[in-house]
Write a structure and sequence with these properties.
single chain, alpha+beta, 3-stranded antiparallel beta sheet
Length: 193
């Protein structure tokens, strides 16, 4: 086999492997650069799933390199099936030794790669009791949070019997958690007044 035909067959081989691993990972893999290869990982996923995406890319690159060397320096011609088995078993091995943790919704994805589930351990649950204010006072539970850079705050008012007396919420745009918490306190004071 001459050199140009080796590179053509490796490119075709690589394209088929990237398409296959993209289907297994349920994403489109852009192979134009290393950064785009690594950007196939979901923005929000558990650490064990993130590890699976990373090792899938790395083992696919390694297998393509192995196939190229086999075609160039050996008489053994790698098959697409043997490359898929090699990648799949490497992902399973790496995924099983991963220190990452998963969620219950990741089980089907991890099972498709024969990776054992490393679930998060729930720490000790601490009971929190609500203490009623003395009559005629009201108590407010105010909180703020940020998800994806967008902040919001809100609060609940209850009387001395624990009866719901009102609530508020506010979307405050792109802010920090500290800003959302402080804004929740300020709004609680304004509504109480």
């Amino acid at each position: 086999m001459n050199l140009p035909s080796i590179f053509f067959s490796v490119a075709k081989f690589a394209t088929r492997l990237w398409d296959w691993i993209g289907i297994k990972l349920n994403c489109v893999i852009d192979i134009s650069s290393v950064d785009s290869l690594l950007s196939c990982r979901p923005a929000r996923c558990s650490s064990q799933v993130s590890d699976i995406f990373l090792v899938a890319v790395l083992h696919t690159i390694h297998t393509i390199w192995w196939a190229r060397n086999s075609l160039r320096f050996s008489v053994v011609t790698p098959t697409l099936h043997s490359a898929k088995v090699r990648i799949h078993s490497s992902i399973a091995m790496s995924g099983n030794i991963s220190k990452g943790k998963c969620l219950k919704l990741d089980f089907a994805f991890l099972d498709s790669f024969a990776v054992s589930h490393h679930c998060r351990n729930v720490k000790e649950i601490i009971m929190v009791l609500w203490k009623a204010p003395t009559s005629p006072w009201l108590k407010v539970n105010a909180d703020g949070s940020v998800i994806g850079g967008h902040a919001a705050c809100g609060g609940l008012f209850c009387d001395y019997l624990g009866t719901f007396r009102g609530a508020f919420y506010c979307n405050i745009g792109i802010q920090s958690v500290f800003y959302a918490e402080v804004m929740g306190i300020i709004l609680a004071l304004e509504y109480a007044a």
